[in-house]
# Entry
Amino acid sequence: MAPVRPDQMLETAAATLRPAPTAVRKRVTVLGATGSVGTSTLDLVGRHPQLFEVVALTAHSNVEALAQLALQHRAALAVVADESRYGALKEKLAGSGVEVAAGATGLLAAALRPADYVMAGIIGAAGLRPTLAAVSQGRRVALANKECLVLAGEIFMKAVRQAGTELVPVDSEHSAVFQSIAGADPASIERIVLTASGGPFRTWSLEELAHATPEQALCHPNWTMGRKITVDSSTLMNKGLELIEAYHLFPVEPAQLEVVVHPQSIVHALVAYRDGSMLAQLANPDMRTPIALSLSWPNRMDAPTKRLDLVEIGKLSFERPDEVRFRALGLARQAMRQGGTAPAVLNAANEIAVEAFLAGRLGFLQIAQLVAETLEAAEGRGVLGSAQDLGAVLAADAAARKLALNLLGTGTLSAAQ
Ligand code: NDP
# Structure
């Protein structure tokens, strides 16, 4: 038999990867379609109409953007969570053939509509129920909403196992770990290192941080993201939430999770093995890279991202995070170790604090202060307990929000040092 030339082998491999003209397209649903992750997902999906078709799209209240995306991507269903916006959405999509729904039941209907891939891109605790509903389908869930794992990690991962769902992390750090850990024996893993850009205030003193404004916090040096996660990046709470996320996603103990500040945001995470090796994933900071992976894994698809030029970058640097100036990281680590409902309380207090900071009602350093005092108050009132079921988690979330709002409203919050 004539030997196969390398170029022929490559051609054969390429032919098997190329979709056949009659290939069935992947049905895609995007929860949180109007957000930063949602629009990046739809940007990729729209570039490959031969590979994907859109089933359902959801938003909270932005019906203008939702209607436009639904028409552009020929979605079967568009859902607005805010029921008061139902009429406006219906009007915008009248005669288009796109089905319209609203409210919590609408969100669940979108998540349960048969699909091969659901992007969980809703922000905050509001994403928990719809994402759990998507998980129950037993197909692929691309997880951007880290709050699902922060609030209810054990419950969520149990639901994933029970339904046989393929969970693909989308957070760039967790996507990097997912790729660097693929197929590894858990016993061979020594530790996981998540990198953090350090945010816009990396070099600021405590005195300067006390006067940091929302506008300054929203100027992330490397990433373009939604407002809430951008503020979380500036406090390093985002990295804290990511530690908890990593703890539930990967076979490691809290002590095996480390954070390193890496201002260039090129290396997204590293996995250290017992033989001294470290595996890392590198890419320019663009969420379309991890989202593309979640759409195509175990294969790879084209993504229109800027390619890395290592010589142009020249230098990659790493620093230890400063947990005195960025207290949120330590608070999250403590909640992770404590377990039970502590992470849900941490998350709820942080959501309230970030909203108040963005509204000009709270100083930058008081974000972590409010979280710390809510955790303390929750402990004193017996809110911290076991997260045995969804009811317990949601009750802790609600109680923590009330405590945080009380601390805010009564003005009893101590001046943050
Ligand atoms: P955005 O704020 O940009 O978008 C949030 C989306 O969720 C919007 O579609 C919004 O609708 C919808 N939404 C907001 N509140 C509700 C609610 N109560 N009920 C239903 N839908 C709601 O967020 P991001 O895209 O930045 O983040 C989404 C998730 O992905 C977060 O959990 C974040 O931590 C995570 N993530 C984001 C990254 C990023 O680069 N942005 C990176 C890694 C993780 P509307 O537009 O109508 O308000």
